[in-house]
Amino acid sequence: MKILKEKNIESILEQIKAGNLPVSEAMEQLKDLPFKELGYAKIDHHREIRNGYPEVILCEGKELEHIVGIVEHMLETGNNIFLTRASREVYEALEKITSDLEYHPIPRIIVVKKREVEKTESVILVATGGTADIKVAEEAALTAEILGNTVERLYDVGVAGIHRLLKNTDKLQQANVIIAVAGMEGALPSVIGGLVDKPVIAVPTSVGYGANFQGLSALLTMLNSCASGIGVVNIDNGFGGGYLAGTINRQIEKARRAES
């Protein structure tokens, strides 16, 4: 694995071996190292050390050859690789360099699976206002799952038929973090936030008729929610919602393990 051949890492390991460098200090030094320079991209191989998760590839806006080049180099680490907003064209191009691919066409996510990830005991619940929000919701749910979280789904429980949500209050109460995905006027997170004592991550979608301004109406509703404990990510940003939920859930897991 190329990233382990860096001279500075060898030096750190030698210092640890000689007893001249505490492991905790060595970890602090390793947090800044290294990245792979490709010219068109700088691959951050040590993001997992700093942030807990490896670097994620956003495919939207990138040239196909650049995506393939980035994945080729990331394969050297032996880690799982996670690509968002990926087209079938990207998937077919990557099939030529690796067979360990999973493609999820609804959220447009590709996973190169090299190792199993242990799942949390703590649960993230992903809820949607309507069926039209599932594309964004699945991006959130799969992001959280890929990053090692146990995820449950509760779809089409919007305020137009609020009895559908209220019938599932047990699921709301059992989750540790809730991602509420909604378009139109975006009221779902406020309702959920008024029912639970846990973090609610609101994800506005661009679903709706003309005056929703491509999701701006839902975004503004969520930002102005009267319910407490709600955080809001950008329009259609299922990835951001899933990533944030996973970060919160990971802290819950750490606390649980520390108590046991």
TrEMBL record:
<dbReference type="InterPro" id="IPR000031">
    <property type="entry name" value="PurE_dom"/>
</dbReference>
<dbReference type="InterPro" id="IPR039476">
    <property type="entry name" value="P2CMN_synthase_LarB"/>
</dbReference>
<feature type="domain" description="PurE">
    <location>
        <begin position="122"/>
        <end position="254"/>
    </location>
</feature>
<dbReference type="GO" id="GO:0016787">
    <property type="term" value="F:hydrolase activity"/>
</dbReference>
<dbReference type="GO" id="GO:0006189">
    <property type="term" value="P:'de novo' IMP biosynthetic process"/>
</dbReference>
<protein>
    <submittedName>
        <fullName>Nickel pincer cofactor biosynthesis protein LarB</fullName>
    </submittedName>
</protein>
<dbReference type="Pfam" id="PF00731">
    <property type="entry name" value="AIRC"/>
</dbReference>
